[in-house]
Amino acid sequence: MNAARQTRIGLTLAGAIVAAWLAIHVTGIFFWQWSLATLPVAIVMIGVQTWLSTGLFIVAHDAMHGALAPGRPRLNRAVGAFCLALYAGLSYATLLPRHHDHHRHAGTSLLDPDYHGGDPRLVAWFGQFFRTYYSHGQIVRITLAALVYTLVLGAPLANIVIFWAVPALGAVAQLFVFGTWLPHRDGDTPFPDRHRARSTVASPLVSLLTCFHFGGYHHEHHLHPGTPWWGLPARRRAIAERQEKPA
To answer: Three-state DSSP class for 68?
Structure first.
């Protein structure tokens, strides 16, 4: 794909995710009025915000691979850092080398920061995943932001928890289950190649709703990390077409 076109599409989609996330974030934290009538709407908003929080991470993930804006490292870094800061005060500079270690050493417990480290059980693996990507610095940044929200801007603490912390934690679980555990766990059949990654069997819509195609097309991502999340379905079709052509 032409780099300029990929950049335009990537930035447009990233802008839409950020704008939708901010709309729910600001409305929920600063303007939400609780009642029995608004409770169902709040539940839907939390679910959508969880998905959008996953989207913020996936945009930053594309930036780490230069897939958001090909050939523009500063722009990738700026957008990626901004999305991670919004999502949960994460550090782009810290996560970048860890994620590339995952690609270089996928499925090796000592070198792959995303691997289970010897305990493949879901809960234990998730605990390691959480400790890998969440630091004391991140907790300090989130705490300071919450203090500004409450003490300076007058936001109720409960709203911060419900409309920011809960979706962020839900996104962690979503990213782990669909983007790490299902694609990289050992199964009855061997991995297709050295990337030790599988794509989950799901329709494009389910793949989009679970993890922005990061799980449904995970093997394709490891094969072609420069492909943005929204281009992974087309990448799979292109791979299948090449395999079907007679030698």
So the answer is: coil
Query: What's the predicted TM-score (pTM) here?
Result: 0.94
**Residue 230 CA to chain centroid, in angstroms?**
13
* 97 to 22, 160, 166: CA distances (angstroms): 28, 30, 27
The CA-to-CA distance between both ends of the chain, in Å, stands at 25
Q: Pick from 80, 76, 104: which is nearest to 91 by CA?
A: 80
Give the C-alpha separation, 56 to 24, whole Å: 14
What is the pLDDT confidence band of residue 37, given thresholds at 50, 70 and 90?
A: very high
Q: What is the predicted pLDDT for the residue at 188? A: 80
Question: Cα separations (Å) of 12 from 15, 47, 61, 65, 79?
Answer: 5, 23, 16, 18, 12
CA–CA gap between residue 74 and residue 6 (Å, rounded): 16
